[in-house]
Amino acid sequence: MKRTVKLFIAAATLTILSCVSVYARSVRIGLEKNFYQSPSVEIADKGFELRVGDSKNYTMNLGSSVVKPLSKSYYDTGKKYASYNRAYDGMQQYIGNNCIPVLKDDGWHVYLAENCKADTSKMTHINTGGNCVVFSINGVNKYLVDGSGSAKVYGSDGIIDIAKGRYRGQIAFYRDEIGITPINILDVEEYLYGVVNSEMPSSWNIEALKAQAVAARTYTCASFGKEGVYDLCDTVHCQAYGGVDNETPESIAAVDATNGMEIYYDGMLINAVYFSSSGGVTQSSADAWGGSVDYLVSVPDNFETECMVWDRVLTKEELVKIPASKGYNIGVLKKLEATYTPNGYVKDLIFIGDKGDMAISNDSVRGAFSVLGQSLYSNNFKVHENEDGTYTLSGRGYGHGVGMSQYGAKGMAESGYGYVDILKHYYSGVTIE
Would residue 214 be called left, alpha or beta, if left means φ above 0 and alpha means ψ between -120 and 50 degrees? Predict the structure, then answer.
């Protein structure tokens, strides 16, 4: 089971409106898992539709392409063309010069290299913009896209293949000073087709899948603009998303059966955080992150018949690296102690050394162990000192423990509960509409 979202809630009152907004049910997903700030992105499709920003579409049938960022100076001939083919033909008058077709906001142009032999006295000297990318085929640069917005492509059948995955909707090639991060722009419901099976096995009971679909839809709509340039990424930092290749008939059915259904509290869309398994009881947002939220309170997780049970044995020498990574020199570790919430989750993990003490609190405890190679699976663990001086952390559950337990949803569904019952159990006092 994949880990799910990490969310930090800073205030008790969340004022999030319905998903119906200026985004009009479309969502922008940064494809970070395989492409974050990549030096290039391959388009496997031999034909696709191309546009710059929100301008006119152009059909490109030149072959599979590689897209790379480009920053360079050229001369713009100033002539405009109706298509790539006409721009290509227009280059013939500049034979002997290094030139290339360019798609700009107002259509196709031809750029000449700075060292060209042509008379450039009536041409405009330009530096390519921050969105400029070059499309190459078999190692040969074929054309640039240099406009006020990102280059966008989509398939004629509604699906675009960018070599490491197939995606519905459009792909925008967002570039920064390091590389390209493709952004998948698509309808929220179609996005969820690729989320549900990425977050929950499609073999599970359909009512659990429906609960996952509604929670994911709500989380999506509450996250518009969360990542800045795009709304969400495609990793477990936000929600796992695998595009068309991760869709299944069951995931599509769960999304379609709950089309548009979202979770509200007091008339506001909630932050529908969820996780893998709790180990018997969820924890409140106040205990995990320090911000009290009325619908994110601790509830029994009695239907969770399956959960991860884990142990981790650590030496004092290993443990002392944790405070050191935070800038604390506690010297030699004398003792490791923990305080607990009323529901058994670690509240404070206290490192007591011969030169001082340091404590890590709440959900930060899990991530603090990444300096030792891997974060803890959960905050639901006990600390035991062994006779040989090592410490064993004995835990249950996987994830932050706030909101809906996915394995708990599975157990409730198998016991005959519907998706609405499941959601209302884990998100207190909510309505589903």
Answer: alpha
Residues 6 or more apart whose Cβ sits within 8 Å of residue 95: none
- E strands, 243-396, are 263-265, 268-269, 274-275, 309-314, 333-340, 346-353, 357-361, 381-385, 391-396
* Beta carbons within 10 angstroms of residue 23's beta carbon: 15
d(CA 21, CA 42): 33
| Structure tokens, 251 | 């995931």
Q: Tokens 């009536």 belong to which residue?
A: 122
Q: Where are the domains of the chain?
A: 39-178, 309-396
Q: Hey, what are 118's tokens?
A: 């042509």
Strands (E), 234-286: 263-265, 268-269, 274-275
Tokens of 155: 């398939």
pLDDT in tens, 115-169: 998 999 999 999 999 999 999 999 999 999 999 999 999 998 999 999 899 999 9
Question: Sign of the CA dihedral 153, 157, 163, 168?
Answer: positive
DSSP state of 122: T
| Pick from 190, 212, 401: nearest CA to 297 | 401
Secondary structure E strands in 256-308: 263-265, 268-269, 274-275
Determine the distance from the C-alpha atom of residue 90 to the mean position of all C-alpha atoms in its chain, rounded to a whole number: 43
- Compute how many other C-beta atoms are within 10 angstroms of the C-beta atom of residue 106: 11
CA dihedral 280, 283, 288, 291 (to 10 degrees): 170
The H or E element that residue 256 is part of is helix 249-257
- The single residue listed with the structure tokens 């399956």 is 306
CA–chain centroid gap for 389, Å, is: 41
pLDDT digits (tens, 9 = 90+) for 233-282: 999 989 999 999 999 999 999 999 999 999 999 999 999 999 999 999 99
Query: pTM for this one?
Result: 0.89
**220 close to 19: Cβ distance less than 8 angstroms:** yes
Q: What is the DSSP string of 168-232?
A: ESEEEEEE-SS-EEEEEEEEHHHHHHHHHHHHS-TTS-HHHHHHHHHHHHHHHHTTTTTTSSSSE
